[in-house]
Prior knowledge:
By secondary structure, this protein is mainly β.
Amino acid sequence: MSAILLGLSDGILRVEYVDRSAKGERVLDHGRVTSIAVDRHEPRRAYASTWDHGLWLTTDDGRTWSPCGTRLGQRKFSRIAIGPPSDGKPSTVYVGTEPSALYASIDRGLTFVELEGLQRVPSRTEWAFPPRPYTHHVWTITVDPFNPAIIHVGIELGGIISSFDGGQTWRDRQPIADPDCHTLRTHHKAPNRLYEAGGAWYCESRDQGETWVRDLDGIPDQLRYFYSMVVDPGDPDVRLLTAAKTPFSGQYGAAPEHAWSTAYRKIGNHPWQELGKGFPPHEGNGMGWFASDEVTPGEFFYVTPRGDLYHSDDQGESWRRVWEKSAISAPSELVRFAEVTGSPFA
Length: 346
């Protein structure tokens, strides 16, 4: 039995996937969920960030939730992430906010301290979120799976900012990488590798973000907006990426008559190829969200902005809808508990 957590605009829906069928249950009813992170080393434990209703914790595979990090107050929480444990200590929990700031907890989300070095990055004065240019936010956080002291933060819109000493000091954004970072990934089989889906480019780095290569080979010129991206846990050379013509057609808030999106897969050094064979249609669908897990390499889930959940067990070659649109609000995040019995999550 697998469990999928859908972050919604007003809570969390937990979907159990058994024998190629699914059933769902609302498990949280508090505010817009901006991200969910599962602790791969305590796999029954997960955290959720909300835009205006604080941080939340589950220790039973997402069935029940309770507030955490209450001392942070009423901030706008944009992202939450979990680093690998070190020296027998619990995993560090990181949370990002709007305006852009990064906080860390070493006591499982009870208390947080700000990593103030992020505020001293030279480019900070240039950060701005285009729809609200007076502000910006941390939109993605990635901790290196081999070294928990290495943290990469994607600012929307400000680029990828990196720390190699646990968040005390930070390296400013590097050229080539997309400054509008939407999704940033690492891989437990590919040391030093970073994958980025941005507002105009897909980029990869093989040296912890020191240098980058842009790669849109096989993607038509009219598609230049990218958002969700996932890498096969079993193969660091299999990547899936959502794409749209513009932010206005691709975002989940787009009206159905204007929504349009698609997705691509890249294997090795071959060109990107558009997904088909059961994947959601272009028309009427904004870009959704991908998820995977380490227990079943080659398996992916995808949720559309309307709430339809799709599954692939052949590295994205073919897809099947396993959960139809229901009376739920628009999803804003998708993660997977690999097995509700407690297997690691990626």
